[in-house]
Amino acid sequence: MANVAIYNMEGNEVGSLELNDAVFGVEINEHLVHMAVVQQLANNRQGTQKAKTRSEVRGGGRKPWRQKGTGHARQGSIRAPQWRGGGVVFAPVPRDYSFKLNKKEKRAALKSALTSKVNDSKFIVVDDLKMDEIKTKKFQEVLKNLKVNKALVIINENDQNVVMSARNIPAVKTALTNTINVYDVLKYDTVVATKDAVATIEEVYA
After folding, report:
1. Disulfide check for 117: which of 12, 123, 129, 138 has CB 3.0–4.6 Å away?
2. For residue range 138-185, what is the model confidence (pLDDT) as tens digits?
3. Residues 6+ apart with CB under 8 A from 23
């Protein structure tokens, strides 16, 4: 089992924690991780792009000139794709880009992503993360003490003081244990989790 240090908000080491190998020490499956990221990005797409085909544009019912004898190339409609104002060939239409990933595959992908962070020493555990008030400057000081810049901060409870304090920092995102996903874990350089959050993750995913 992997051992990680536990830090306080001042950046001092106050103990150590043994991580569960069933969650933080699995064999990394890069294919599933890739599929999970593709699925999340695909599911976020609006799919509302639309352009008109030659059957939908206005006009063009009459043949612009006779078939032979004009010196022009033969044309059937002024709304054919090669004409200005004509329809688009294979025009995009509104569609649903989302696809399904099995629950076991999602869980395996998340475990792989968390394991990769632990292996790269990019997983930091904090004994507690409490703020007396909503203060971005104080939250930045905590990150500075932990020597972290771009981070995904995982908390166990929806503490508004912590969430609101971190909201205005561009390179930081807060997430509850039930909202973490593969894309966010990989996107941010470091994962910072409270001790309680780690216990909940192990309980749910082990």
Report:
1. 123
2. 999 999 999 998 999 999 888 899 999 999 999 999 999 999 999 999
3. 111, 114, 115, 201, 202, 205, 206
Q: How far is CA 171 from the centre of its chain?
A: 14
pLDDT tens track for 102-131:
999 999 999 999 999 999 999 999 998 888
Residue ranges per domain, the chain?
Answer: 3-45+98-205, 50-93
Query: What's 88's DSSP letter?
Result: P
Q: Judge whether 96 and 173 are in contact, CB under 8 Å.
A: no
CA distance 139 to 164: 10
At the second CATH level, the architecture of 3-45+98-205 is 3-Layer(aba) Sandwich (3.40)
